[in-house]
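Tutorial handout. Part one gives the primary structure; part two gives the three-dimensional structure as tokens.
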Amino acid sequence: MIRRSGPLVATAVAAALVLSACGGAAQDASDAAAAPAAPAAPAGGPLDLSGVCPETVVLQQDWQPEAEHGAMYSLVGSDYTVDAGAKSVTGSLVAQGVDTGVKVEVRPGGPNVGFQPVPALMYLDDSITLGAVNTDAAIVASADQPTVAVASQMTVSPQILMWDPASHPGMTTIRQVAASGSPVVTAGDVIPALLESQGIIKKAQSDTSYEGTPARFVSDPAIMQQGFATAEPYVYQNEIAEWSRPVGSEPLANYGYSIYPEPLAVRADKLEQLRPCLEKLVPIMQQAQIDYLAEPGPTNRLIVQLVDAYQTGWTYSEGVANFSAQAQVSEGFVKNDPASGVFGQFDPARMQQIVSTFGPILQSQGTITAVPDPASLYTNEFIDPDIKMG
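Part two.
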């Protein structure tokens, strides 16, 4: 299983990971015909998107299909078709059990789009309605491809550093393992720069050669390696025969990796045009995440089916999908906004802190020339304040 490489993946790493995609015409879902159609949403009601949203709402993800993107895929109705060549799934947009009157198309990212960042894809393809744009990626794109986040669907980043407990006995934190001098293997230089700025690691420990496979970790268990708390702990213990035991890990959020992971964003220049749609669509997206996590099984089966259909070399099992959905809630990665108690809402103080932390790092690396105004990166105006996780 190849995991996404992490924030702001270097071009060289991305090129190394490109896998040939298997083409093919659109194919009907094997069980779509047998499933009953959803009833139509009441005309003009909050779930009726016809006339205010595009005929097809296009949702662009930043990586392969996986449970972290469950809210998007949960909206795909039972009449869906899979286009294995274009790597997309399209069906009626079904929310809270009703047909909203428009279609939804969900597109994966990563190798499926040549590893292009989501803001770049949004500016290349005007049909994309919402894209999943990490806050650090939004900062990077703010000058030339600005986006505005309209809803957070994962509240805390599940990005971790992991290690072998046998190689680091008794150690339970990143700080402890890093103090041993172990190499910190990542795909990009943002994570090590963040840890270096706090004196947790030394520059000599940074190794940005991670290419997304388990080979290095299995053969050199003294290292620390980036991963996701919603995947790697399960995968290494249950699906990598050469390892087959637990890993130690700690979320990088404990060390200031405070970005909003994959919030839903629009192009800044399309905000006004999409306003009537967003007034209804954003609350649907808020509720979709809550509903997905309450009953992830059907959507997880669709995600696994799509991975199999796209044939990019990415593998993803129902076991890790179910683990991810459970961990998103139990580990606190998906929860109400701590400041307001509203699900999907952005905290202005946190957005200021994110820009204050990552802006100077990206500026010092030459990735950006100017640090953007945090208020330009998000809006809470479409959030329904009554939508909360129980």
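Part three, for discussion. Confidence is low (pLDDT under 50) at residues 7-33. The domain at 159-255 is CATH 3.40.190 (D-Maltodextrin-Binding Protein; domain 2).
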